[in-house]
Amino acid sequence: MAHNFSSVNDIMKWVEDKMKKALEIYRKELAEIRTGKASASLVEELRVHCYGQNMPLKQLASVTIPDAHLILIQPWDPNTIHDIEKVLADSKLGVTPTDDGKVIRIVLPPLSEERRLELDKVVKQEAEHARISLRTIRREAKEAIEKLQRDKVISEDEAFKAKDRLQKLVDKYVDEIEAILKEKEKELKVL
Fold first, then answer.
1. For residue 34, is pLDDT > 80?
2. Is-contact 50 87, C-beta < 8 A?
3. Nearest to 93 by CA among 33, 173, 10
């Protein structure tokens, strides 16, 4: 660990920033998991190589959801349609996009029970990865608190209070992960 914190508040700010990022990564991972219900978030962040760089699809096209099983993607530059289509075909979505030269259509078929169970496992796995990230952050922060105590920057009592504060922060983010997980599992069961 290469952190050099000068106070408990520095540690807590670092922890909060790292946990927010871990939660955001978790949300993005889950957003890419198709539940059978059309959502712009399934495709908006997919990276498309065009104009000499990788760009999120949402910067290249408008994404609309006319019904629960259809995603329409209308590129602003028709020349990018094939680049977008290739990324969609190669994505985790497991769909075959079709286009009429102006609009790309993605029809999301209902999920089979077998696929639903597979996705449920993936969703739980992603939650565990997020929890592991939080535990790693907690361990690093705890070590930093203990270093401050060893270096006589804070007292034993202050270290105890800081570790308690740290655990409350971890619990808050674990609760958020659980809430997101339950919502995604509900989506998988409903459809």
1. no
2. no
3. 33
- Would the CA dihedral through 177, 182, 186, 189 be positive or negative? positive
- Enumerate domains of the chain plus CATH numbers: 9-31+112-190 (1.10.132.20), 40-107 (3.30.1360.40)
CA distance from start to end of the chain: 45
pLDDT at 190: 59
Residue that has been written with the tokens 């065009």 in this structure: 50
Task: Using the predicted structure, report yes or no on whether residue 74 has a pLDDT greater than 90.
Answer: yes
Task: Give the pLDDT confidence of 131-156 residue by residue, as tens digits.
Answer: 999 999 999 999 999 999 999 999 99
The model carries a pTM of 0.69
DSSP 76-118: SSGGGHHHHHHHHHHSTT----EE-SS-EEEE-PPPPHHHHHH
Strand order in the sheet with 98-99: 61-67, 70-75, 104-107, 98-99
The amino acid at residue 136 is T
